[in-house]
Specification:
A hairpin with a 5-residue loop joins strand 2 and strand 3. The strands form three sheets. Strands 1, 2, 3, 4, 5, 6, 7, 8, 9, 10, 11, 12 and 13 form a 13-stranded mixed β-sheet that branches. The protein has a three-stranded mixed β-sheet with strand order 15-18-17, covered by helices on one side. With about 325 residues, it is α+β, with helices and mostly antiparallel strands. Helix 1 packs across helix 2. It folds into three domains: about 100 residues, no CATH class; about 130 residues, Jelly Rolls (Sandwich), CATH 2.60.120; about 80 residues, 3-Layer(bab) Sandwich (Phage tail protein beta-alpha-beta fold).
C-alpha cells in the first residue's frame, strides 16, 4: 500500500474517534470518562505490510486522567450557583420570618399617667402624652424599647440582656436600675438616674462617631438636639419626678417655691403672717407624704407655728432674712 494511503487511513480513524467523543459528550459527560479509552496514533513506516495494525500494540498502556470537559464544568458551575442562591434565599427568608414574628405593641398615655409592667418584670410609668413601643416578648441579646415622651423606668436586673431605650437622638442602656427619661421630639434628651448606673449614648448619623456618658445615682445628663453633645444640665427640679413617684426633692429651696409646689400638687391654700418666712431655705426630700406631714416638717425645721383655719394653712413665726443673699 502506498505510504500516503496509510496516512489517510490513520487520519480517518482519528476523525471517527473525535466524532464519537463529541457525540458522547453531548449525551453524558460522565459516561465519556468511563467509556472512552485513550489510544495512541502511530505512523506506519514506508514499506510496512498493509495488514499491519495502524493503532498501537494490543498490550494495555497506562492512561492519564482526562480533564473535565468545558460542558461538564459549565454544568457543575450552574449547579453550584443554584445551591448558593438557594441557601441565601433560605437564610434571608428565615430572617424576614423572625423579624415579622416579633410583634410590637404601643403603650400610650393621654392626659393621665399610665403604669405598666413589661414581660421581663420591669415596670414603666408614662407621663401624659407619651408613647412607648415594646415587643410582645423580648428576644435576642437586648431588651429594646422605643420612647417618645417622658417615662420613669424600674428595670428588672439581667446582666445578660441589657435594657435599651431608643430615645430618638440618643440611646440609654442599663442592666438593672431606676431612671427617668424625657425624650420630647425636637427637644434635648434628658436622663436622670435614681439608682444604679446608666449609659447615655449618641451616634452621629453621618460619621458614625459615638459619644457616651456614664451616670451614677443622683446624676443627670442632657443630649443636645442637633449636635448630639452630651452635657450636664441644671440640677433636677424639686418636683420633676413627682408625677412618677410622688417625690419632692428640695435642696436649699426657698419656702416661697416650696409652698407654690405644694399648692400645685396638693391643691392646698397656704398663707404666712410674715413674708420673711418665704425666704427660708429648705433642704429635704419627701416621698408620697401628705400635705400635713410636709408642713409639719417645715414648721419644725424653722421653729414656726402651724395652724389650720378651715381649708387654709397658716404659718406664723420669725422669718429667715439672714439667709437672703
Amino acid at each position: 500500500m502506498d505510504p500516503e494511503e496509510v496516512r489517510y487511513d490513520a487520519d480517518d480513524a482519528w476523525e471517527a474517534m473525535v466524532r464519537r467523543v463529541e457525540m458522547v459528550e453531548l449525551v453524558e459527560p460522565v459516561e465519556l470518562v468511563e467509556s472512552v479509552e485513550l489510544v495512541e496514533i502511530v505512523d506506519v513506516p514506508v514499506g510496512a505490510s498493509p495488514r499491519a495494525p495502524v493503532l498501537g500494540d494490543d498490550a494495555p498502556k497506562p492512561t492519564s486522567p482526562r480533564a473535565p470537559s468545558l460542558h461538564f464544568i459549565r454544568i457543575i458551575t450552574a449547579i453550584a450557583a443554584v445551591l448558593v442562591l438557594g441557601f441565601v434565599s433560605i437564610v434571608f427568608t428565615r430572617m424576614l420570618k423572625e423579624r415579622n414574628e416579633t410583634q410590637f405593641v404601643t403603650i400610650a398615655s393621654a392626659e393621665t399617667v399610665v403604669l405598666d409592667t413589661l414581660t421581663d418584670g420591669s415596670t414603666v410609668m408614662l407621663n401624659s402624652n407619651t408613647e412607648l413601643s415594646v415587643p410582645e416578648k423580648f428576644t435576642g441579646n437586648t431588651r429594646s424599647v422605643k420612647l417618645k415622651g417622658e417615662a420613669f423606668f424600674q428595670v428588672e436586673p439581667d446582666s445578660l440582656k441589657p435594657f435599651v431605650v431608643d430615645a430618638g437622638i440618643g440611646m440609654v442602656t442599663v442592666l438593672g436600675t431606676s431612671f427617668h427619661v424625657k425624650a420630647i421630639p425636637g427637644a434635648d434628651l434628658l436622663v436622670f438616674v435614681e439608682s444604679g448606673k446608666v449609659e447615655v449614648c449618641y451616634v452621629d448619623p453621618v460619621t458614625g462617631d459615638t459619644l457616651t456618658s456614664i451616670l451614677k445615682a443622683g446624676e443627670r445628663a442632657m443630649v443636645k438636639a442637633g449636635t448630639g453633645e452630651i452635657g450636664k444640665p441644671a440640677d433636677i427640679g424639686p418636683d420633676e419626678l413627682f408625677w412618677a413617684n410622688r417625690k419632692l426633692i428640695f435642696q436649699e429651696t426657698r419656702l416661697s417655691v416650696v409652698f407654690n409646689l405644694l399648692k400645685k400638687h396638693y391643691k392646698a391654700d397656704i398663707g404666712v403672717e410674715d413674708d420673711t418666712i418665704l425666704d427660708c431655705l429648705l433642704s429635704a426630700t419627701f416621698t408620697d407624704e401628705t400635705i400635713d406631714q410636709i408642713l409639719e416638717v417645715v414648721a419644725t425645721t424653722f421653729d414656726l407655728e402651724l395652724s389650720r383655719e378651715q381649708e387654709k394653712y397658716i404659718i406664723k413665726g420669725k422669718g429667715c432674712t439672714d439667709e437672703v443673699e
